[in-house]
């Protein structure tokens, strides 16, 4: 069945999705998705397409719609991984042997000890989950300058822990 044929039933739509699967795998691989994530991205895209099938315009090519969906699935997966990594990084700032109130106070003290710019960048990156590029654009700063400030801030936070 051609990918731009009119599909009126779920069965026809499912068959059309299946027919596009190999092309979708090649597209996802072309995005330089790590090999261990390719199948997951393809499955996410197909599942998302299936859930959104009522909104699909059968007069348009299915392949293009699926590729756009797969791209969004990959971008969502990367953003989620970045947020998870940022959350893990902020968890390292907290000592699990201390009570919550003490941890919050120590973290607040450590953050307060940072210069204003470094504190704002650390919070924007780790707490808010903003990407380095987003912070760079928001601050109108070169990307490497943002990285340098974050590196210095992390070193200062680590030194604060040692001084305590």
Summarize the structure.
The longest helix is centred in the middle third of the chain and has 30 residues, at 62-91.
Explain what you see.
- The protein folds into two domains: about 10-85, RNA polymerase sigma factor, region 2, helix turn helix motif (Rna Polymerase Sigma Factor, Chain: A); about 90-164, Arc Repressor Mutant, subunit A, CATH 1.10.10.
- Helix 5 crosses helix 7 (about 145-164) and helix 6 (about 130-140) crosses helix 7.
- It has helices spanning about 10-30, 35-50, 60-90, 100-110, 115-125, 130-140, 145-164.
- With about 160 residues, the chain is mostly helical.
- Helix content is about 75%, strand content about 0%.
- The chain starts with 9 loop residues before the first helix and ends with a helix.
- Residues about 1-5 have low confidence and may be disordered.
């Amino acid at each position: 069945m051609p990918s731009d044929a009119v599909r009126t039933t779920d069965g026809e739509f499912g068959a059309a999705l299946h027919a596009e699967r190999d092309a979708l795998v090649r597209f996802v691989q072309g995005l330089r998705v790590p090999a261990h994530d390719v199948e997951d991205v393809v499955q996410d895209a197909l599942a998302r397409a299936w859930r959104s099938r009522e909104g699909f315009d059968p007069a348009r090519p299915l392949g293009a719609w699926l590729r756009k969906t797969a791209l969004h699935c990959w971008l969502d997966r990367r953003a989620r991984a970045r947020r998870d990594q940022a959350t893990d990084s902020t968890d390292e700032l907290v000592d699990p042997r201390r009570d919550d109130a003490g941890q919050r106070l120590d973290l607040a003290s450590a953050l307060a000890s940072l210069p204003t710019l470094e504190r704002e960048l650390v919070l924007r990156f780790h707490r808010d989950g903003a990407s380095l590029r987003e912070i760079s654009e928001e601050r109108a700063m070169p990307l490497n300058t943002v990285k340098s400030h974050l590196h210095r801030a992390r070193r200062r936070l680590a030194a604060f822990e040692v001084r305590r």
